[in-house]
Amino acid sequence: MKISKTWLNEYVPVADIPASEFAERLSRTGIEVDGVENIGAGLKKIVVGHVLSMEKHPDADKLNICQIDVGEEEPYQIVCGAPNIAPNQKVIVAMPGSRIKDNVKIKKSKLRGVKSNGMVCSLEELGFSEAVISKAYADGIYVLPADAQPGDSVIDYLNLDDDIVELDITPNRADALSMMGTAYEVGAVYNKDVTVSHIDTSDYEQASLGDDLKLSVTDTDKVPAYYAYLVKNVTVKPSPLWLQVRLMKAGIRPMNNIVDITNYVLMEYGQPLHAFDYDKLPSHTIETRMANNGEELVTLDEETRELSEEDIVITDGERPIALAGVMGGLDTEITDNTTNVLIEAATFNPVNIRKTARKFGLRSESSLRNERGINIDTIAETGARAAELMHKLADGEVVLGRESVEALDFTPQTVTSSLSFINHRLGTDLDYDTLTQIFNQLGFSLTGSAEHFTVTIPNRRWDISIPADLVEEVARIYGYDKLPATLPESKSVNAGLTPWQAYKRQTNQLMRTLGFDQAIAYSLTSEKKQPIMQIHESHPVALDFPMSDDRRLLRTNLTTALLDVVQYNTARQTKNVQVYEIGQVFSWEDDNELPSANTHLAAVWTGMKSEKTWNTAKEAISFFDMKGVVETILTKANREAEITYEAVSDYADMHPGQTAKVLATTNDETIELGYMGKLHPDTAKNYDLKNTFVFEMSLEAIFNLPEKQVVQMPLPKHPGSSRDIALLVSDEVTHETITQVIRSASDGPLVAIELFDIYRGENIESGKKSMAYSLAYLNPETTLTDEEISSDVDKITTALQTELNAEIR
């Protein structure tokens, strides 16, 4: 919100307040000032010029040699390349020795051999942004009105020596999104009287538009108030210079007098208005309703919008002609041929406006205010104000009457509190007279006593509804710098870490010990990225007010963000990357319940396990390197559970031949802890990665497994023994399956199973593999005999042959 101090001075006297002090004072009372700009402060010797004559430059087709009256005895010869310069124009001239935008000095010069004594300027060269300059002058010089006098200062003529204060208005202070609202705020801060002239709307209230308009509002919950005014026989033309300059200072591009009037009233009151070409409404009907799914509307930006049932639309009784509170339709726009204007002043449901504006990316001055709320006291007044301005500036004939649908409660909000309540929360010792003075400055009426008072809040401050809001207002006006500064009393207690905190810390240390770097990624992601690495279907949690579309959803896994981190680093020539994160993921299992959060551990490892040195060869990361990391984590967790790995091939973003579920079995219950494996080649290619392995597990699921009781055992007094067994099995049989069969078949003191050889190739049938195991036996109570061990090995071989069709070698 850009505020012109000159314009603001018409409501509250601020001319004598230095801009820097003004900005600092407002910032200290809750409305942050982003900056102060004074276009005229850096300009020098910029005057009005009158183009007397013009001829083509002999050596340049696009240059013209102009004789310009600048209020001196002789005209100045200036060479100008602007395409829109013409004789008898009043233009902006930078004299020799003048200063324009960015402190550029203008000197006498020669252009293609012809002397040029100065420069004819565009508004952009004075310091206005290209975005706010009227399209008629966007590519050329600015033409001043005919009444401008040659030699007069342009700085004074355009009132450029004006401090423009840019306010950063928070959502709760939408009342300050207008000149009047800011005036009330400044008046309260400086304890100055505010002068606001209101329009008498009684003549409009007492009559209707009759046959000129039929108004219908389908749902007053979506459209609580709608007022329609009619102005006939207008002349559409450029706005007067004072109006154009005020809009440009406010950051709005002038269009024509009708559209500019609606924008001017918007800046005055903070009330969005819309002007329809009345003659383009053949039925002379306005009806508000919810859009039908699939219905289309071509908006003023010439884009076709496909509507849905959450969009409020203005219709002509049949077809949509505007997106309510967001943007008008192209079919009913104001053009140079418009003669009759229908003015809309309304308020709409903020939730619908926000959804519509966000969906179509149509964030405007109007949608901003409709989203955050408006002053219901002045909705009807703003329509009348616009109608009277169209009479004054567009020669229109105002129809004294209006059509309206109104379902608003105009009763001011009241809030009760006490002096002790406010003093206790601010730490102050204010008296009741001081409190009364503060509320008077704010324009709030106060009744009651120090022990119990009631504050009546004007409707222009719809952000105040509870006692805590009153506390904030008192603190702002009294001065945050005057509040006593004290530290809260608290006794420090060393409570130590909970088991869960200790386990997370231990896991963090372990991952760093294993060579991984910790990353802390965003907890928010986009709809596009949410499905990536989503192993199991999950209903994501969407934010109501995301800061951007890229941060709309709470993440449902950690790996996706880690892949972004790895991609960023590898793109900068860090090829070997090991990163991990311990963080929460979120899902919504039931829309009627709160979202659930679960703490996960995820890691990504890409590149080489070791680089080539003088005595070692380089070695790429393998599936078993990452599996070793997972096994270390699970072993150090010290949980009483049997950990198994089950090959899977249907995870979309994982390699179908190198991916496994991580399972834990305890008390005859098997739970899935997570997964690990190699990234699918297509997914890796999308992230510009090559040899990349990942895992993600629920840290909470691991922690919740029963803890293993560590019992110290004496060293065995009796020797153990081992047997080797080799078998030929199908390639499809996994090591995990073989070990399970061995354990199930053995009823002896088998303490360890170790795979020491795998062979495929010569003398081995295609589609099969040879696997050799060492079986370790130990009985701590007695020495084992060969018969005991052989008997157990026989049972194992029989089971392998029967269950796996294995051939014992």
Explain what you see.
The model has no long low-confidence stretch (mean pLDDT 92). By secondary structure, the protein is α+β, with helices and mostly antiparallel strands. The protein is elongated, with a radius of gyration of 39 Å. Helix 7 packs antiparallel against helix 10 and helix 12 (432-442) crosses helix 13 (467-478). The longest helix is centred in the C-terminal third of the chain and has 19 residues, at 786-804. A 7-stranded mixed β-sheet has the order 27-30-31-37-36-35-34. Strands 3, 4, 5, 6, 9 and 10 form a 6-stranded antiparallel β-sheet that branches. A 5-stranded mixed β-sheet has the order 12-15-18-19-20. The chain has 6 domains: 2-38 and 163-190, Phenylalanyl-tRNA Synthetase, Chain B, domain 1 (2-Layer Sandwich); 40-157, OB fold (Dihydrolipoamide Acetyltransferase, E2P) (Beta Barrel), CATH 2.40.50; 202-406, Phenylalanyl-tRNA Synthetase, Chain B, domain 3; 413-482, 2-Layer Sandwich (Phenylalanyl-tRNA Synthetase, Chain B, domain 1); 499-703, BirA Bifunctional Protein, domain 2, CATH 3.30.930.10; 721-808, Alpha-Beta Plaits. It contains 20 helices and 41 strands. One of its GO terms (cellular component) is phenylalanine-tRNA ligase complex. Residues 410-485 form the B5 domain. It comes from Aerococcus suis. Tetramer of two alpha and two beta subunits. It is an enzyme of class 6 (ligase).
